[in-house]
Amino acid sequence: GSRFIILLPLGKQHLKPYQITNEVLTDTTTDFFKNDENDLNLFPVKESRDPKKTAPVLLIIEDHPDLRQFIKNEFEQSFNVIEASDGTAGFDSAINLIPDIIISDIMMPGLNGIELCNRLKTDEKTSHIPIILLTARAASEQVVEGLETGADDYIPKPFSISILRARVLNLLATRRLLRKQFSKLPDISQVTTTTSLDQKFLNRASRFIENNISNSDYDAYAFSSDMGMSRSQLYRKIQALTGYSVNEFIRNMRLKKGAELLLTTENSVSDIAFEVGFKEISYFVKCFTDYYKLSPSKYRGFRGRN
């Protein structure tokens, strides 16, 4: 809550000779606002055609407008940046928009960063979102408290923007690695997630699809209703955990069940296609071949021999 006023006299009459230099400074920022332009190429630059589909969403929750703007300036060329001036507004934005990553101050009016993190990490809609907490207090107790609530990283102020950028990129890279494993594992229970709540979410999603596996009309609308989420919330959650859209997630679950039936039953390919909810056999064969790089008949023969 401190406020400082600094008066800077005009001219140089008040300066001593040794305090004057003719060198022009090209960067007058402090370490707190340090910027390494070479690091900008670490970001995938947003494509202007459709930035919402080509760039991750970053939510900045910071009550200090200058610092919030500074962080935004560093990330807005590569991210879709959302701003919130306090924890309450930040929580609402996180629930409604499901960002890819959150940078939040701890000391804020209303809902502070610790409470915010705790609420988001215990809500099924947002438990997967990586959260970086910023604070001017370096007390170890507060660091522990922040991490115990599920924060993914903790950066004390003042900080170098290069460090913040690196932490953001590392967290997003980790999430990408977790998503890659989804398509490689036959059983969703084997997928590694960042929280137990996310694993429960995937297991619950899997059960709903399996219970409706033969229903060809079971789509994203019915799925989002069963999951108790809006379609946009479910899309962002599924995409973050698996890398797929909701329709792709449902289709791939059907394909995995089809692959299982090919190896455990003697049913024909057409019967299996209908059993896992495909209306057209040709579409099932096409999707199966694209996913497994083998046609259903070749998959049955190849896997059956191994």
Task: Offer a concise description of the structure.
The chain is an alpha/beta fold. The chain is built from 13 helices and 5 strands. Helix 5 links the parallel strand 4 and strand 5.
Describe the structure.
- The protein has 306 residues and is α/β, with parallel strands linked by helices.
- The chain has 13 helices and five strands.
- A five-stranded parallel β-sheet has the order 2-1-3-4-5, with helices on both faces.
- β4, α5 and β5 (153-156) form a beta-alpha-beta unit.
Strand order of the largest sheet: 2-1-3-4-5
| Straight-line N-to-C gap | 69 Å
Shape: elongated
The helix content, as a percent range, equals 40-55%
Topology, number of strands = 5
- Poorly predicted ranges: 25-49
Strand composition percent = 5-15%
Mean pLDDT: 83
User: Which class of secondary structure composition applies to the elements?
Assistant: alpha/beta
Radius of gyration equals: 25 Å
**Major sheet description:** 5 strands, parallel
Q: Helix tally? A: 13
In N-to-C order, the SSE pattern is HEHEHEHEHEHHHHHHHH
How are the elements arranged and paired?
Elements: H1 51-54, E1 57-61, H2 65-75, E2 80-84, H3 87-97, E3 101-105, H4 113-121, E4 131-135, H5 140-148, E5 153-156, H6 161-180, H7 196-211, H8 220-227, H9 231-242, H10 246-264, H11 269-275, H12 281-292, H13 296-305
Parallel strand pairs: 1-2, 1-3, 3-4, 4-5
Helix pairs in contact: 3-4, 10-12
List keywords for this structure.
alpha/beta, about 50% helix, about 10% strand, 5 strands, 13 helices, about 300 residues
